[in-house]
Write a structure and sequence with these properties.
- The complex is a heterodimer of chains A (about 280) and B (about 425).
- Chain A has about 280 residues and is of the alpha/beta class.
- In chain A, helix 3 crosses helix 4 and helix 5 runs parallel beside helix 6.
- About 5% of the residues of chain B have low confidence.
- Classes of the chains: A alpha/beta (about 280), B alpha/beta (about 425).
């Protein structure tokens, strides 16, 4: 389990993370959703021990993230492509594996598994500089899985990725969940959070505004489902809560109904309701 | 240790994947050493006062007078020394040359028409061949003063004519016709000098002397210094300079790579891995050190087998290790100062080029003004060159090697401690 309590971080005058507290259960995919600069990466940096918090604490199964034991359990997929472009895929994996005391007898099989997992086995001996953006992202993921970590921190893993690689990464995330990994996934794409995450935390200006399952967030902060009916009497829009017998009779009285659409609330609406801004503002 | 070695191996692999880095680290220094070695095989002039050690073994009025004229000459800065001290000063590169006035110098100095020209034994620092011609010419100019003194001073002229008449009469080597001619000519000249000039200060003597006695000086180069100290060719001088270029290339490359780890984000992977920050820094330092040793080894292999340069192997190892420590420390220090590749490249290039210039990696120290030569003592490049030269041709003892070695190691340790304290491994 990951337990975060009252985490704070300041960079000069900027209060990057304010009193963030959360719990992530084993085997969950936890999404941290927020616009750029909201404090997602800073939160992940503190949770992985990359930077120290000004106050608050992080516990990974009872371990401090800076401890050597915890580090064996952490897999970090940084937002940037953290690879050596002039080395081959195998060279990169071999180097990163060497940092984790992986027994020699298991090294090759772990590298083969990682490359296979991200669909790059046939490019193992190619230099990273020749890879597409999506392939680099996938190798970026593979490099973090060699030591079989329990906690996988993915910081905007689909940034600048083509649709094919993005779908492959989604599949990878879900497969890792099936393997029992705990995944912390930051994104500013609400579709990703909605599709992948068991729990989502919405963060803005360093503050965790809401926390829960997607369903909980939608029901608490998403607002009503809107029903739009286009008929020979024009276009009418109703909240789902306003649907009544009178409305149905009115519809039945119409000669022609051209279109009925149902607009359910999404995380974009949740963010809008919480902050008064669009997620991509 | 395995993790440190893994870090080092990764950096070396990255270095060899970058063709430009390989060129500037391994090939360019060789080209530099070769080209400049060829250039310095020839002579070129210098115009600044040269430091020379003077040994007067004759201790006559003439020799003392000649020493005084050397001391007064603008071309030289003189240290009076014993023969041993003088040779040591040149061997250790403290002085450009030594002059020894052997016994009999004064006797020859007096004889203008007979005997041999006064001999001066000259030992020149082999790394300063560019100044050799200038130095010899300046010495000859001082030698001509004896004619001026002789022919402008009637009393001295009379004295020298008396000495010459006596030598002609006593000599068995002079052919009879010449003996007769001189026996007639020299007394008449003496008489003429005494009668007509009568101590006139404006007296002068016309004509040129083509015979040996009329040579201002006989400059005998002391091969002993050259043979004993080593270099048979100019590459012995330029190889250390080439090595410095290679080392500077390593320093720049590794300082950039350390900053690059931060900007690329690979440093984040290293920090979250079960590896300490000390190990990360040590891995980078070991990579830089190994690359330096590799390039030094390559250059000296080429120097030995192709360019014919000879050296003392244990002392060479000492010099290589000391300069390695020094420049690894500087690499860490530079990397700690900058946040981007561009800024670290700028800082490192600027500092090392300046140190290289001041330290004699590009421009020989002798053409620099005195204050800049004094500053060169603060350049690690100078001490690295001195250490390598000590192992090649200066024939340094281990005790003498300790001066540059300790200076280099001290600079390296201080810079490394400062660098590791100041460097922020995390992304800003």
């Amino acid at each position: 389990m990951i337990q975060v309590e009252s985490l704070n971080k300041r960079f000069g005058n900027i209060h990057a993370v304010r009193d963030v507290s959360l719990e992530i259960h084993p085997g969950q995919i936890f999404g941290l959703l927020g616009p750029n600069g909201a404090g997602k990466s800073t939160s992940i940096s503190m949770m992985t021990g990359l930077i120290d918090a000004d106050s608050g604490s992080v516990s990974l199964s009872g371990l401090k993230p800076q401890s050597k034991e915890a580090r064996h359990k952490i897999g970090l997929i940084p937002q940037s492509i953290a690879l050596y472009e002039e080395l081959t895929a195998t060279d990169n994996l071999s180097f990163f594996a060497s940092l984790y005391d992986i027994p020699k007898s298991q090294l090759q099989s772990r590298m083969d598994w990682a490359l296979d997992f991200v669909g790059l086995k046939d490019r193992a001996t190619d230099r990273v500089s020749g890879f597409s953006g999506g392939m680099k992202r996938r190798l970026n993921l593979a490099a973090s899985l060699l030591h079989d970590p329990d906690f996988i921190f993915m910081d905007e893993p689909t940034a600048g990725v083509d649709p094919q690689s993005r779908n492959k990464l989604f599949d990878n995330v879900l497969e890792l969940k099936e393997l029992g990994k705990t995944i912390i996934y930051t994104t500013h794409y609400m579709e990703e959070a909605q599709k992948l995450c068991d729990q989502v935390g919405i963060i803005d200006h360093g503050e965790l505004l809401a926390l829960g399952t997607v369903g909980e967030l939608l029901s608490q902060h998403g607002g009503d489902t809107l029903i739009s009916i286009s008929s020979d009497q024009g276009v009418k829009e109703f909240k789902s809560s306003d649907v009544s017998n009178d409305l149905i009779q009115e519809l039945q009285a119409s000669n022609k109904v051209y279109d009925i659409s149902v607009n359910r609330p999404d995380l974009e609406a949740v963010f809008l309701n919480l902050t008064g801004r669009q997620l991509r503002d | 240790m395995k993790k440190i070695i893994a870090l080092m191996k990764k950096d070396i692999k990255l270095l060899f994947r970058d063709k430009m880095a390989v060129f500037f680290t391994f090939v360019f220094p060789l080209i530099f050493a070769f080209i400049f070695g060829s250039i310095f095989s020839g002579d070129s002039g210098g115009s600044k006062a040269l430091k020379v050690a003077v040994v007067d073994l004759d201790q006559t009025e003439q020799s003392l007078q000649f020493v005084k004229s050397i001391e007064e000459a603008d071309e030289f800065t003189v240290t009076l020394a014993t023969e041993e001290q003088a040779k040591d000063l040149v061997r250790r590169g403290k002085h450009v040359a030594y002059f020894i006035l052997p016994e009999g110098f004064g006797e020859d100095y007096k004889g203008i028409f007979t005997g041999s020209p006064p001999e001066v034994l000259v030992g020149i620092d082999p790394s300063r061949t560019a100044e050799a011609g200038y130095l010899e010419g300046s010495l000859m100019k001082l030698g001509t003063d004896r004619f001026e003194q002789a022919f402008s001073n009637p009393a001295a002229m009379t004295e020298r004519l008396d000495a010459s008449i006596a030598q002609v009469q006593e000599s068995d080597d002079i052919p009879a016709e010449w003996k007769s001619l001189l026996g007639d000519y020299l007394p008449k000249m003496k008489e003429l000098t005494q009668q007509e000039m009568g101590g006139d200060e404006d007296f002068s003597f016309g004509g040129d002397g083509e015979a040996n006695p009329m040579m201002p000086l006989k400059v005998t180069k002391q091969e002993e210094v050259v043979q004993r100290s080593g270099p048979k060719n100019a590459f012995s001088i330029t190889i250390p300079q080439g090595v410095i270029w290679a080392i500077m290339g390593c320093v720049i490359g590794f300082a950039i790579s350390l900053v690059q780890e931060k900007t690329l984000g690979t440093m984040n992977r290293l920090i979250v891995a079960p590896i300490s920050r000390t190990q990360i820094v040590a891995g980078k330092a070991l990579g830089c050190f190994t690359a330096q040793i590799a390039v030094v080894a390559l250059l000296f292999l080429v120097a030995y087998f192709i360019l014919g340069v000879r050296f003392n192997f244990p002392k060479l190892v000492l010099a290589a290790v000391a300069s390695g420590v020094c420049f690894v420390g500087l690499m860490m220090f530079f990397a700690s100062l900058a946040k981007t590749e561009r800024s670290v490249a700028g800082i490192t290039n600027a500092f090392l080029l300046m140190m290289g210039m001041v330290g004699g990696a590009m421009i020989p120290l002798f053409v620099m003004p005195g204050w800049m030569q004094a500053i060169s003592n603060f350049s690690p490049v100078k001490w690295a060159i001195v250490a390598f030269e000590g192992a090649i041709w200066r024939n340094f003892s281990y005790a003498e090697m300790m001066t540059p070695v300790l200076i280099l190691v001290s600079i390296g340790v201080v810079a490394f401690i400062l660098g590791t304290r100041m460097v922020k491994l995390e992304e800003a």
